[in-house]
């Protein structure tokens, strides 16, 4: 496969937007991001469903790029007319992921299971997003993110994007994953059980209770802790994104 590579985007599940005295903000607890009043129409479109990123006018592209990088958007990458994978954030990332996807490997905390809408979904109690692969070639990249062998049926650009997103999400790692004792002390099964037994979704890291919402794209967040996440999102009813669904295009 070597077609045109493009993305469809939609607002991640559970995100709302509203206007207050300090302006318009996106709210997806524990994350808060201010947006310009002129950007609200774009955000409303993203909340209504999936749209091709290249269908938006050029002035909106910078906003879309920032929202995607900061974990506000569900992104499905297509190679030609075939969906390759979907990145589905639950919270904003704390920062940039490793710079070299060529040396990555799957995290020992990552689990892979059938996705309800089809494909295979990779999740981790230490990741800020899940990834669902939709083709056998994408599964080959997921199984060995650091492989230099071209995956069957997936073009080089789409494969490189998948490797990068696996690393950024925390589903793949570089270096010594167990360098810190707070990570080394857990087995994958024990950490997943630790989180699920406390009513946590089991897919993302958490924040100390009472730390409050985070502003911006995640770079100014409080320290993430394993096995704990704060409560539900504040009410902000101007718009609400729909729940996650299989990829469609508009």
Give me some keywords for this one:
6 helices; about 20% helix; four-stranded mixed beta sheet; 14 strands; about 250 residues; alpha+beta
Explain this structure.
Helix content is 22%, strand content 24%. Helix 3 crosses helix 4. The longest helix has 14 residues. With 250 residues, it is an alpha+beta fold. Strands 5-1-6-7-11-10-9 form a seven-stranded antiparallel β-sheet. A four-stranded mixed β-sheet has the order 2-3-4-13, with no helix packed on it. It has a two-stranded antiparallel sheet with strand order 8-12. It is globular and about 45 Å long.
Number of distinct helices: 6
Strand content: 15-25%
Tell me about the biggest sheet? 7 strands, antiparallel
Order of helices and strands: EEEEHEHEEEEEEHHEHHEE
Secondary-structure class: alpha+beta
The number of strands is 14
Can you list the strand order of the major beta sheet? 5-1-6-7-11-10-9
The quaternary structure here is single chain
Coarse morphology: globular
